[in-house]
Design a protein that fits this description.
single chain; mainly alpha; 11 helices; 80% helix
């Protein structure tokens, strides 16, 4: 199995799209099933708390976020097909499924794409009650599939026996947390693009708090990954990230842009009990995305180099 530059983009875009869907659909599902809306839900003829029952700010934010996630997923899948060299090989995975992570991931990715498409359509179009119920079901199923998509890329790398750098049970956890952080970043960008000061303040605070917690867990996952990888091999392969040719990408791109700077910005806002201007929030979100890409870039490239 080979890992080219296009695979790095696929790992990043696919994970970020899944993380964005997980964050946005969680908000939608909470709105649909929250206790404060049950009475309104019971009186609704459709029996479904769909697009009509979401606040205007939420409708705009989730529609924008789903659109960004959809674009990311499409570009990511195109990168995957281009990297295969033979696009028809993609269809063979459906005709001859196996128990491999590649085969399972292909089915999960395809079903997730269908759920994301339905959620996007429901958020931008005025659909009937039946379609709203279908979209609600797609968001529930899509949450599970999004987690599978976020995790399976880490499992795929971990399964490559020839690369000691990837041989850690913490790698899928790291990919999951990184994708969720990227999802919070996409949601924050969506809020900035749809800013309505009165309605956006709770979004800024809630997403910043969630991302700060995820970033802390992500940093811990990196530490555990480094400990387990180096402990399992006398060559200490994780040191290639810390002081090798890829060290600047790890420290500046991942640790700096993806962990330290976003955490500092989010913590300062939370301690001051006020939100930063939307421009600062958007810049922070971009830093998180840069960190997510840098993580995958440095892991793939350093892993390939150490395996040679």
């Amino acid at each position: 199995m080979t890992f080219g530059e296009l695979i790095v983009w696929y790992l990043f875009l696919g994970g970020a799209a899944a993380g964005s869907f997980a964050v946005l659909s969680a908000v939608d599902l909470y709105t649909a099933f929250s206790r404060s809306r049950r009475e309104r839900l019971a009186r609704a003829a459709s029996g479904c708390a769909g697009r009509r029952f979401r606040p205007e700010t939420q409708r705009r934010v989730v529609a924008t976020g789903y659109a960004i996630a959809f674009a990311m997923l499409v570009v990511g899948m195109l990168c995957l097909l281009a990297d295969l060299g033979r696009p028809e090989a993609f269809y063979l995975l459906f005709l001859h499924p196996t128990g491999s992570f590649v085969s399972i991931g292909t089915f999960a990715l395809t079903l997730f794409a269908a759920c994301l498409t339905l959620a996007l359509a429901e958020s931008v179009l005025v659909l009937g009650p039946a379609w709203e119920r279908a979209a609600l079901a797609a968001k529930v199923i899509g949450e599970v599939l999004a987690i599978a998509v976020m995790v399976y890329t880490g499992l795929l790398l971990e399964s490559v026996i020839a690369v000691d750098l990837w041989r850690s049970a913490w790698l899928p956890v790291l990919f999951l947390l990184s994708a969720l952080s990227c999802g919070c970043a996409v949601a924050l960008i969506s809020v900035c693009l749809c800013e309505s000061r009165a309605g956006s303040l709770p979004w800024f605070r809630g997403l910043s708090l969630a991302d700060a917690a995820i970033v802390v867990l992500e940093a811990l996952a990196v530490i555990m990954c480094a400990i387990t990888v180096n402990a399992a091999s006398a060559d200490r392969p994780f040191d290639a990230l810390l002081s090798g040719d890829q060290a600047w990408v790890f420290w500046l791109g991942f640790a700096g842009c993806g962990i330290l700077m976003p955490l500092a910005i989010e913590t300062s806002a939370l301690l001051a009990r006020r939100n930063h201007a939307s421009g600062i929030v958007a810049a922070m979100a971009v830093l998180v995305l840069v960190g997510g890409f840098s993580l995958r870039f440095v892991l793939v490239n350093a892993g390939v180099q150490t395996a040679v």
